[in-house]
Amino acid sequence: MKFSFLFQTLPVALTVAALIQTAHADQGNMRRALEALRNARYELNQASRDKGGHRTAAVRLIDQAIEQVKEGIAFAEAHGD
Question: What HEC string does the chain produce?
Answer without folding.
Answer: CHHHHHHHHHHHHHHHHHHHHHCCCCHHHHHHHHHHHHHHHHHHHHCCCCCCCHHHHHHHHHHHHHHHHHHHHHHHHHHCC
